[in-house]
């Protein structure tokens, strides 16, 4: 395959196995997954693995601060306002005060 690609003069986005410098984002995530979760767990069933890994994924994406984002989570959970009936008053400003702000 590589010889054919070279012969036609094309370029690929293929990342050679064992070349972590070619995809730093994935390698960084894989390292954190291994260090923060997999090295400290023993899974006794597929269902348990799915539940524990999903809980870690939600924490990683919505709670855990990331230094590259100014110590904010990459996808904080959205605030769901109660639905308003037509003509009713908007939510009180005090509701906004309960939203945590990370500095």
UniProtKB/TrEMBL annotation:
InterPro entries: Integrase_cat-core (IPR001584), RNaseH-like_sf (IPR012337), RNaseH_sf (IPR036397). It comes from the Bacteria. Residues 1-81 form the Integrase catalytic domain. Residues 81-103 are annotated as: Disordered. Pfam families: rve_3. One of its GO terms (molecular function) is nucleic acid binding. PANTHER family: BLR2054 PROTEIN, LOW CALCIUM RESPONSE LOCUS PROTEIN T. This is Transposase orfB. It comes from Maritimibacter alkaliphilus HTCC2654. The lineage of its organism: Bacteria, Pseudomonadati, Pseudomonadota, Alphaproteobacteria, Rhodobacterales.
